[in-house]
Amino acid sequence: MQDDIPDLSQYTESAEYYSDAYAQALARQDYAGLVHAQWGLIARGSEAVPYALTLLNHDDYEARAAGASILGWVGETGTHRDDIIKALIEASYHELQRPAPEDGHEREALDTMIQALSQLGGTNVVSTLGRLIIDPGSDSDRIWAIVESLDNVIDSSVFALDEDRGRFLTHFEGRKREVMSNKERI
Description:
The chain is mostly helical. It has helices at residues 15-28, 31-44, 49-55, 61-75, 81-97, 107-120, 123-134, 140-155, 162-185.
């Protein structure tokens, strides 16, 4: 067990209990309560998927990030993997369209969605991350987050053939150079 991951067997309440606890902690801005409820939802596995999906559309960016994180954890082994990937892809596109606040914190939700997608892997995830790279709304920081996610997915042998990987990486390197060139002009 990693140091930052609690013993999930200690979370024995229902998904409904942890969903209510999360909503209450969010209303109070109780960070410890949010963390506890989030781990409780992760421990409940597929039972937590419906609530986590609703969090993806929440007004609060931290709630959207929590929803993505929960889905990334439970989607790896759950029966809802394809539905989770589809929801995360859709939420990522919606998140990218949100205006970026001056403090940049709202972009943390998109970063968490990208991370969750990379955890889940699969070819549709690669194409989604590729589209997020070329989206004009993606700034250089976002692109680097996507690069790291793609690195995780690519290293997990998602490409059937080496030439598929080569074509993708060639396209990606071109886009990365373009973004960095634009950043230098600013």
